[in-house]
Amino acid sequence: ESAEKGGYDCFMEKEIFEQPDGIKHTLERRLDESGKIVLDDIHIDKSYLDYINKIYIIACGTAYNAGILGKTAMQKWMGIPVITDIASEFRYNQNFVDEKTLVILVSQSGETADTLAVLRDSKKKGARVLAVTNVVGSSIAREADDVFYTWAGPEIAVASTKAYTTQIVALYMIALNFALEMEKISEAEYFDIIDKMKEIPSKVQEVLDNRDYINVIADEIVGSEHAFFLGRGVDYALAMEGSLKLKEISYIHAEAFAAGELKHGTIALVEDGTPIISIATQQNLFEKMVSNMEEVRARGAYVVAISQKHNKEVEKVSNRVIYIPDSEDILSPIIAVIPMQLLALTVSSKRGLDVDKPRNLAKSVTVE
Ligand code: G6P
């Protein structure tokens, strides 16, 4: 087993460090020589895209968190309503799946019971099902109408890392491709985003190279009972993933909040020293996040900000800042999640826990 870990202490660490290559792989498998996205095995064309009236993105756990980012990209570029839901909720609630619905299922393993059940129900209702999965030949891959494989390579650690970042890349590529088909974005915009996506692996590597700083922060929160993650827009979706990572492997009670909800209850939880990881990567929401950080800091929170290098203003309202390389707003989550993965990993191992096999959790939930 130690040989399989390739010199890393655990699989999660190895998989975190595999992300630059994993993301590159996801991209390269679907780009042709001219730099265009190729989805020719996915039988969805302009007339179908013009015919449907909504998209549902359904998943569980980390895959659901990736799905929310997919929704943002699809709404932005394709201009179509996209609804995201957790598979175990969606299947038992009233939904509006019909033949005018594209259902996109996101699943690393392709075996999650609730997600598979949604697939079968949706097909019965006449919807087309597109799966985004990592495991070739999995149940979801076999039963879906179309499959986009993420090609992240095997993910062993229970806490998902490279599956998450490659799922986002996959969903963004689907969104871009469909948007171009639908003539909702220009070729110039399309190629510009693809070019920026190609820069992500080296930006992720840059964050990984600065790992030592995460150690300092981990030391400061390792004894905490609670931790909160704040963000707005895509940073809120990212906060959900950051809090899931921390809670599942360190057992620190972690929750994510939309920063705009602070005043509606959350702020009552802030005590002296409460760690609050505040993500501020969205330029249009930056000032709002700075004022949220100021509010929690004034109440004694230990604020860790995650933001781009030029946003020096965060230094005034936080105890620690993790800077990430600049990128297009919508692409920033793929980079900003890396320090949160490293933080969860470091806190878990400082607590002497089994990082790869957290208690009570399974890699794939194949029963309800
Ligand atoms: C479990 C795993 C998570 C994963 C979720 C959904 O909870 O521990 O890492 O995100 O299942 O799994 P899937 O294979 O469908 O992505």
TrEMBL record:
Catalytic machinery residues: K363
Reaction(s) catalysed (UniProt annotation): D-fructose 6-phosphate + L-glutamine = D-glucosamine 6-phosphate + L-glutamate
Cell compartment(s), UniProt: Cytoplasm
Origin: domain of life: Bacteria
Keywords: Aminotransferase, Cytoplasm, Glutamine amidotransferase, Repeat, Transferase
Keyword DNA-binding: no
Subunit description: Homodimer.
Function noted in UniProt: Catalyzes the first step in hexosamine metabolism, converting fructose-6P into glucosamine-6P using glutamine as a nitrogen source.
UniProt name for this protein: Glutamine--fructose-6-phosphate aminotransferase [isomerizing]
Organism of origin: Peptostreptococcus porci
Organism ancestry: Bacteria, Bacillati, Bacillota, Clostridia, Peptostreptococcales
Gene expressing this chain: glmS
Part of the intact protein present: 241 to 608 of 608
